[in-house]
Write a structure and sequence with these properties.
Layout lengths: L45 H9 L8 H7 L13 E8 L5 E9 L16 E4 L5 E7 L2 E10 L5 E8 L5 E6 L48 H4 L13 H4 L8
Parallel strand pairs: 1-7
Antiparallel strand pairs: 1-4, 2-3, 2-5, 5-6
């Protein structure tokens, strides 16, 4: 006998943003969602399983089915009332895994709880700075672009998506700077994985998960640093000499 669970994280409150105010009159539709479960043999790799599932990762997959039930789902917008957004982003040098987000206009993209009718659309930007997101609900959005290795993010408000029209947004993003950088500790990637007890595998667990996923109390700061943290830029090892909790973000 076996069982499986799916965890759907529909709204968040990271970095001081708000949580949904589920009171009288609250009405919000999340989805539709599609869950794909597959399996392989003892020789099947996770990459192969992922590749098999990725064919269903497009928002245009099974459009006809979702359109057929649109009238039964409150607030759901059929494909005939949606449009395509394209972005051409001049990325800063060194940007890795760049991502573009269309979200509520004038609001931080993670603060997705203020307007129950606001939608969000995410997509990967390719190496040439191009991105295309189909099936976008018409409206006015904020464009946010961020990437690993780059301080700050690009923000542009008032991106208007109209019905039946492909909207293309051109943007030039440059890394935030307050002057000449003398040295840098860590990597600006919205994580603390490079520090001690970060991404390094925990050999005491069967699947060797990253140590940061283990309850923080398992790591004793006084034992790791009995004399406090001494870190010398250019010589010290971030993965050993700096604790992940000090710059957890």
């Amino acid at each position: 006998m076996c069982s499986s669970q799916a965890y759907l994280y529909a709204a968040s409150n990271h970095h001081g943003d708000n949580v949904p105010n589920i009171t009288t009159g609250f009405d919000r539709t999340f989805g539709p969602q599609y869950f794909h479960f597959n399996k392989g043999t003892n020789t099947t790799t996770l990459a192969e399983l992922r590749a098999e599932a990725e064919q269903f990762a497009s928002p245009t997959w099974n459009t006809a089915f979702y359109d057929s039930i649109a009238h039964l789902v409150p607030n759901y917008i059929p494909s005939t009332e949606r449009s395509t957004w394209k972005g051409r982003i001049d990325l800063p040098k060194g940007a890795k895994r760049p991502i573009a987000v269309l979200a509520q206009n004038g609001v931080d993209f993670q603060d997705n709880v203020l307007d129950t009718k606001a939608y969000q659309y995410w997509g990967d930007i390719d190496k040439k700075g191009n991105i295309e997101i189909p099936m976008v609900k018409p409206g006015t959005y904020r464009l946010t672009v961020y990437a690993d290795g780059i301080f700050g993010q690009y923000i542009q408000d008032n991106v208007v998506i109209a019905v039946g029209k492909v909207t293309t947004t051109k943007a030039k993003w440059r890394e935030e700077s307050a002057g000449k950088e003398l040295w840098r500790i860590g990597t600006p990637d919205r994580s603390s994985g490079e520090y001690r007890h970060g991404d390094q595998p925990d050999p005491s667990k069967p699947l060797h998960p990253p140590e940061y996923r283990i309850y923080w109390a398992s790591w004793d700061f006084p034992s790791d640093y009995p004399d406090g943290v001494t870190f010398e830029v250019g010589k010290s090892d971030e993965s050993k000499d700096f604790n992940y909790g000090m710059f957890l973000c």
